Each structure stands twice: as C-alpha cells, then as structure tokens.
UniProtKB/TrEMBL annotation:
The active site is at residues 262, 336. It comes from the Bacteria. It catalyses: Release of an N-terminal amino acid, preferentially leucine, but not glutamic or aspartic acids; Release of an N-terminal amino acid, Xaa-|-Yaa-, in which Xaa is preferably Leu, but may be other amino acids including Pro although not Arg or Lys, and Yaa may be Pro. Amino acid amides and methyl esters are also readily hydrolyzed, but rates on arylamides are exceedingly low. Its EC number is 3.4.11.1, 3.4.11.10. Residues 330-337 form the Cytosol aminopeptidase domain. This is Probable cytosol aminopeptidase. One of its GO terms (molecular function) is manganese ion binding. Gene3D superfamilies: Leucine Aminopeptidase, subunit E, domain 1 (3.40.220.10), Zn peptidases (3.40.630.10). The lineage of its organism: Bacteria, Pseudomonadati, Pseudomonadota, Gammaproteobacteria, Legionellales. GO terms for biological process: proteolysis.
C-alpha cells in the first residue's frame, strides 16, 4: 500500500477524489475548476447527516463527497467513523487509488490525524487470503494520497511504519496454529532480523539451551506438545551503549489449557495466544522502519500448551530459572509460566525497563472488555509513560492494581508459590503478582491484551494492538530516564 501527501488535490490525479465537508463551514478551495466546484457544492446539498455520501462518476475520475457534520463535533472518534465509511466505499467500488481531503480536527496536530488515518485505512484493507482457494477477492486499493495542509513527511513516515508493524502482527496472529508453531515464530523473527540486518540481530534457542539455563517452568508448559519450545532473543540496535528497553511477549501458539482443559467452544481462538509475541515483532519492525535511535530487545517465550501423556500435571512442582519453585495447580495458567523464565533471562541485559505483553487472563476481558488493555506496574514514572503513549497513539489502556496484599493468593503449602489463585477473584491481578516475583531486578510493567489483541466471534481477526502503543512508548522513552 502506498501513502503520500499532496498540496494540490484535483480530480484527475487519482481514480477517486474524496472530499469531506462540514455542514457549517465553507468548502475549502482546492485546485478545482469552477465547474467542479459547482458540482461539489451541488452534491453537498444532497447530504445531511454526518456519514452521508454522494458519488459522482465522470470520465476523468470519480468524486465522493462525505458529510462530516458540525465542525465542533468532529472528534477523533468521528474521524475514525468517516475513514471507516470512506475506506469501505473505496474497497466496495474496487477503486485502486484515491485522494483523500478530510478537514482537520481542532486541538490535534495534522501529523497525529495523518497517522490515525493511515493506521485505520491499512487496518481495513488488510485481509488474509493465504488459505482461500475459492472466491479469493483481494482488495484493489493500492494508493492513498492525503490532502492535509499542515501534515509533514515525518507524520507520513510514522503512520506508515506503525501500519507496517500492525500488519506483521496481525498476519502472524491470524496464522492457524498448525502453521504458526514456536519453530515458525523463531523463523519469522530470524527473517525480520535479516530484512533489517544493518541494525537487527536474532538468536533462537530450543529445549537444550533452556535445560542448560534451568528454565524449568517454560519447559514444563512445553513438555506435553510434539512442538519444541523456542526462546527468541531479537535485538534492534539503533543506538550504541544505551541500556535497552525490553519487550517480553507471550508466545503460546495454541492454548488448549493442558490437562486443565478449556471448553470446546471457541477454543480455536486460542491460536491467538501468541498475540503478545506477534506485537513484539511488529513493534521492532516499526522501530526499524523509523530508524529510531534506541536499543530495543524483544524476548519471546514460545510453546504450545497441549494434552498428552507427557503433559505437566496439576500439582506438579517445578523449578524456575530464578530458582523459585512453582506448584502448577492449573495448567491453563501457562502464560505466566513461560513469561517468568523469559523475565529472569531479561536480567542479563540490565534494561532501562521491561514491559511484558500477554493475552494473559480472561479476567481482563471481564473487567475492561475490548476497549482498553489492562496494565499493572508499581513504577509511577513508567505508568505515566504508558498512559501518555496510550493517549498519543489512541491505543487505550487502563491501570489495574498491583498491591502486595494481592500476593497472598499465591501462597503454596509445599512450594514457593502456586501458579494461580484458588478462585477466580482478581485473576488478572494475581497473574501480574505472579510475574512481579520474577521482575525484582529492574523497572517493569505488565500489559494484559487478552481483550484487545483480536476481535472475538464469527469474524475473528487480529487487531495488531498494542503495536501503536508500544511504538509510541519507545518513541517517548527517548526523552525519559
Ligand atoms: N490465554 C488464556 C487467557 C485468555 C482467555 C485470553 C480467553 C483470551 C481469551 C490464559 O492462558 C488462561 O487460560 N488464563 C486463565 C487463568 C486462570 C486459569 C487462572 C483464565 O484467565 O481463565
Ligand atoms: Mn491458558
Ligand atoms: Zn494462554
């Protein structure tokens, strides 16, 4: 997909010229002829409600007018609706190239708006057709040129880079689990590092290395599967000698629940349980495309949580890389197990801070739905950084508690801890409490994306979240301690 900027939109520069108009403001003067200007004015009169559209097809190109309502009511969420409607219409009419002239939202910068529009259009255009043998109907939309007078090439680059990161994430997350195995994720990471060989490098480790490092709880999750686990250690080095920011992704390529097996209903969606891992790779791609002067490390703990004669059993006690022992009372609380060993592994890099990204608990969906990702941290500065970046990227978060009082739920009579609370209360928080026991050597935050990483149900589809958030966190961290 191509995106560009223009200062002089006109009817003939693309297949379709899209013009958004306010109901209470004059149409701004583009490079339109008088004749076209009159045409546009006539079409506008036929619209009333925000979202109303009028097409005009002529020999020299199509014209699409969309009503944007009152100027003061044109907010980011209104913009999102209009862009969705326009993109849908362009796709439906099988338009290849369009020029988009939407008015600017007040109180937001043009570059911000540009970034939002690009990410939105790209999202809608994306489709996974690899597995369609019949009736594959690829979208025709190939190029969008924006008319947004105050936007810059930098904004364009930012939007495109985030969109590319989102696309990679969605692609990996949507892949079925028979293809997207831990081995496949390792290969994809190697491929990404090869694409950006100038400042990326990648190491993929398997069960032997994990045994050597004592990653007993990562191995316990993997032991029921025919697929060997992988620990991916991928570096983007856009700056020398800076302490790295580390992103740790949950890479469960399929979560059957193990012996604490999940119900059959919608179990297929557990192929998405590697969305955290996918978002780490997508974010690294965005950083590399933006050539950000930062050092970011992605750590991905990848395994398949399966049922077999070799599966870990409820009540088994295993030793983590940190030396702490864990009584696995629920084999479905596997994400925290694989993450914990990766979090201990992260210590070696003396990071600036660490953020883990995981589809960790059903509880976070109950609490926050599909709107905001949940996050927990005891580091106030890091919390502020995350909240600012969420606002900036429009990739929303909500902070959840992580007080010591919640830790008691993890007491075990036999081992150092159990891997899940005995009841379902505050399950997202106890999950974070578990992780916190492996992160004492550095600044850390946990991001639970179980509700935001994919759209549930019949039209299930990965969202690519939280790549916009993570990319923004890294950009902002440039200026923080
Ligand atoms: N991957 C799931 C969490 C999940 C569930 C994400 C549904 C998206 C939709 C995770 O491994 C899990 O099974 N969590 C359990 C933890 C519980 C056993 C303490 C949960 O939330 O039910
Ligand atoms: Mn699980
Ligand atoms: Zn899981």
């Amino acid at each position: 997909m191509n995106y560009g900027l223009t200062q002089k939109p006109n009817l003939s520069s693309s297949e379709c010229l899209v013009i958004g108009v306010f109901s209470d403001a004059e149409l701004s003067d583009f490079a339109l002829s008088n004749e076209h200007h009159n045409l546009v004015s006539r079409l506008i009169k036929k619209t009333s409600e925000a979202g109303d559209m009028q097409w005009h097809h002529a020999l020299d190109g199509s014209l699409l007018i969309i009503q944007c309502g009152e100027q003061t009511k044109f907010t980011p969420s209104q913009l999102k609706k209009r862009v969705t409607e326009i993109t849908g219409a362009l796709i439906k009419h099988r338009i290849r190239s369009a020029t988009l002239c939407l008015p600017q939202i007040t109180h937001y910068s043009a570059d911000w708006q540009l970034e939002q529009m690009i990410v939105q259009i790209d999202n809608q255009r994306y489709q996974l057709l690899d597995f369609k043998k019949k009736k594959a109907k690829p979208h025709q939309l190939e190029s969008i040129t924006f008319y947004l007078p105050n936007a810059s090439e930098e904004g364009l680059k930012l939007g495109q880079s985030i969109a590319a990161g989102v696309e990679l994430t969605r692609h990996l997350a949507n892949m079925p689990a028979n293809i997207c195995t831990p081995t496949y994720l390792g290969e994809q990471a190697m491929q990404l590092a090869k694409e950006f060989a100038q400042n990326m490098s990648c190491k993929v480790m398997g069960p032997e290395e994990m045994h050597q490092m004592g990653m007993g709880i990562l191995l316990a999750v993997a032991q029921g599967s025919a697929q060997p686990p992988r620990l991916i250690d991928i570096h983007y080095k856009g700056a020398d000698d800076a302490p790295p920011i580390i992103l740790v992704g949950k890479g469960i390529t399929f979560d059957s629940g193990g012996l604490s097996i999940k119900p059959a209903n919608a179990m297929d969606e557990m192929k998405y349980d590697m969305s955290g891992a996918a978002s780490v790779l997508g974010t690294l791609k965005a950083c590399a495309l933006l050539k950000l002067p930062v050092h970011v490390i992605g750590l991905i703990a990848s395994a398949e949580n399966m049922v077999s004669g070799t599966s870990v059993k409820s009540g088994d006690i295993v030793t983590s890389m940190s030396g702490q022992t864990v009584e696995i009372i629920n084999t479905d609380a596997e994400g925290r197990l694989v993450l914990a060993d990766a979090l201990t592994y992260a210590e070696r890099y003396q990071p600036k801070f660490v953020i883990d990204v995981a589809t960790l608990t059903g509880g976070i969906i109950v609490a926050l739905g599909t709107v905001a990702s949940g996050f927990m941290t005891q580091d106030e500065e890091l919390a502020q950084l995350i909240e600012d970046a969420a606002k900036e990227s429009n990739d929303r978060v909500w902070r959840m508690p992580l007080d010591d009082d919640y830790q008691d739920a993890l007491d075990s009579p036999l081992a150092d801890m159990i891997n899940a609370g005995f009841d379902r209360t505050a399950s997202s928080v106890t999950a974070a409490c578990f992780l916190s026991r492996f992160t004492e050597k550095y600044r850390w935050a946990h991001l639970d994306i179980a509700g935001t990483a994919w759209i549930f149900g019949k039209n299930r589809n990965a969202t690519g979240r939280p790549v916009p958030l993570l990319t923004q966190i890294i950009r902002h961290a440039l200026n923080s301690r």
